[in-house]
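REQUEST FORM: STRUCTURE PREDICTION
Request ID: SP-0412
Submitted by: Lab K.M.
Chain count: 1
Length (residues): 468
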Amino acid sequence: MMDSKFSSEFIEYLHCHIDDFLNDLSGLIAIPSVRDLATKGELAPFGQPIRQAFDYLIEFAEKQGLEVRDHQGYALDISVGQGEQEIALLHHVDVVPAGDDCQWRTPPYQMTREGNMLYGRGVTDNKGPLMACLYILKLFKQLELPLNKKIRVIIGGAEETTWECVEHYFKHNPQPDYGFSPDGDFPIVNGEKGILYATLEREFPTSSDNGSCQIKSLVSERDRTSTCHHLVAELAGADAVKVAEQFAAFANVIYDQSHCRVELSTPWEKSRNPHKVDNCMDKFVEVMRHVEGLDANSAHLITLLNSQFTKSHDGSKLGLSHQDDEMGTTTSCVSAINLDSRGYNLDFDFRFPKGLTIEQVRTQLLALSQQAGVNFIEHQYLPLSYLSPESALIQTMGKAYSDVTGMDAQCFSKGAASYARALEYGVAFGPTFPGEATFVHEPNEQLNLESLIKAITIYVKVLISLQE
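STATUS: Completed
RESULT:
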């Protein structure tokens, strides 16, 4: 069959040109394509680093004789083939910040190879899979493979932030007939939960009682994609020292007469997995909810946290817990709490499967916020996506996966957000295999090269099968 013959030729080609592939990937990883609105401009709505990455890909595509289009700096598409129908592979070129370089064992923006393992920011999420798919197009072009459906690689510049890229792209371009995003896991991610990023905010009254203990300030990083894993609290008042002493067994406490500084740390985790780690919020509230002498402003925050969020990973305290047999359960996660003399804001992440609508979620959260006397602010909503396992696309993917790995291709759902949810008919598909650690969004992001080559083999089989 054509797919078996071509898959073998492609893998042979890739092994012969692996240095070229790694050089091209290394050049892309060397560009720190993090959103930087301070340098935004014409054709660079997300800043110059992302614009630089787009220009790098344009140069690569033109050198290979591939068709390339720049969509006002929001997205690119690179394609090969002809036909009225279209198969799209959705990728992104933006990355999350590298963070503290000292936590990396290799320079984050210098791709490093150690045996079969590649290291660097974006090597898995999503530059490695992106370059792999561009190499598929490159060889399709070189071999003049007869294609009756156009294959288009769509590359966005704001997947890690606002998703303006795909919104802009599909506002001006039609949906593909088939599509998948190599920005997830194998076997097949046929469902992604709906996501709501929001804040509960309260402005303090101009006057308030002081109580015997006051939370003078709370500081945590406002990263909506992670759990609240570091929290610094300043306590004051006659009972501040006594209260702070209760944190001493699991927190760093500094005493200064009637003022105390409490620093809490818990393991970092993605906000979509709140059940996997302790949350600083839980530890803080567990102590503070028993303090009888809290001032009114502090008590208001602690009551809100305790009544709606503590130890409620499934959103049950919000009245929004829901379980779907295929997509799993709702999740609720506090990602940041910040307080000063003016008021407080509480950032949270809520994700939900089929059976719950965004209208139901908004209605419930608005009602709760009104009861609590806080403002409900919605920052971003990403609709859930779901494709039936019986669909022709998933059946084709499942066969390709089984042919290459010898394993059954089981469908499953995630709380993660890939570009698959921007597709009317598509899923997330690889490149990570079960049991692999990639450390995306963390220091020492890594990708197994042999696994990537196996993923490419699967993609080639799918793309050719969809031509038939």
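NOTES: Residues 449-465 form the longest helix (17 residues).
Reviewed by: T.R.
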